[in-house]
UniProtKB/TrEMBL annotation:
GO terms for molecular function: S-adenosylmethionine-dependent methyltransferase activity. Keywords: Methyltransferase, Transferase, Ubiquinone. Residues 73-173 form the Methyltransferase type domain. Pfam families: Methyltransf_11. The keyword Methyltransferase applies. It comes from Algoriphagus iocasae. The keyword Transferase applies. SUPFAM superfamilies: S-adenosyl-L-methionine-dependent methyltransferases. This is Ubiquinone/menaquinone biosynthesis C-methylase UbiE. GO terms for biological process: methylation.
Length: 233
């Protein structure tokens, strides 16, 4: 089993949390961690706004995290509100990346709550998703839950995540799309507040993967699109 160990140049901010950023405080999510977590765990909010349930996110999280035993990268892991219990049940080496130190601290706390300690095979890393501090082709699985819709440069995002995935490796991405009118209206408001990237339909999101060397399948629940795929070359 491959383990991605902490690397030269990574600063240890506190036990188990590393950073490759020069300025490690000040990420936008540092301020909104509590509000974000309240919303995403609310059954009512997810049902009305997205036509989903938190269980849908957990089910997809399990698919990705339990997909095999090799190294796993989760980009934009947040506080692991949907996934801490799942990460605590796998022994695979996991690198959990987020740009917000506050989110990583929440994630660490949740992992410790689950198993009483932070397992050696899990590391938390503050880094920018568009400039991942890893060589090409080094992870067996790449996950990114609820992330693509945040960015305007979606193609660049997908490209960077697939760059670090091994050929033959698998990926699991979920993202909001403009499928339901209420979701679209809500996304338009969030976009005005700079909380969302350019809004995309299912077709537009799936087209991002046609540009990459991958094979995908997908399903939709409400206005959340779940994509799993394999890097083929
Ligand atoms: C919508 S939340 C998703 C969190 C988690 N994946 C989930 O499903 O609950 C977005 C997360 O991405 C992080 N993020 C935003 N931009 C990022 C970037 N450029 N690089 C790394 N993380 C980023 C935020 O700090 C936040 O924790």
């Amino acid at each position: 089993m491959d383990t991605i160990k902490s690397q030269e140049g990574w600063k240890e901010i506190e036990p188990g949390i590393f950073s490759v950023l020069d300025n490690f405080s000040g990420s936008a999510y540092d301020q909104k961690a509590a509000m974000y977590e309240k919303l995403v765990s609310s059954k009512l909010y997810n049902k009305i706004i997205w036509g989903t349930s938190p269980d849908d996110y957990k089910e997809f999280g399990k698919k990705g995290i339990f997909s095999e035993n090799g190294s796993l990268l989760d980009v934009g892991c947040g506080g692991l509100i949907q996934t801490a219990a799942i990460y605590s049940q796998t022994k695979r080496p996991c690198t959990l990346v987020d740009s917000s130190i506050e989110m990583l601290k929440i994630a660490k706390g949740r992992l410790i709550e689950q198993t009483g300690k932070l397992r050696d095979s899990i590391q938390l890393l503050q880094a920018d998703a568009f400039n991942l501090p890893f060589a090409e082709n080094c992870f067996d699985t790449v996950c990114s839950f609820g992330m693509i819709h945040l960015f305007d440069n979606k193609q660049e995002y997908v490209q960077e995540l697939l760059r670090v995935l091994k050929v033959g490796g698998t990926f699991y991405f979920s993202t909001m799309i403009t499928h339901r009118w209420i979701s679209k209206l809500y996304m338009q408001q969030l976009r005005k507040l700079n909380e969302f990237g350019e809004l995309c339909s299912e077709k537009e999101i799936l087209a991002l993967f046609k540009e990459e060397k991958s094979r995908i399948k997908s399903y939709r629940k409400g206005s959340m699109l779940f994509i799993e795929g394999e890097k083929i070359r």
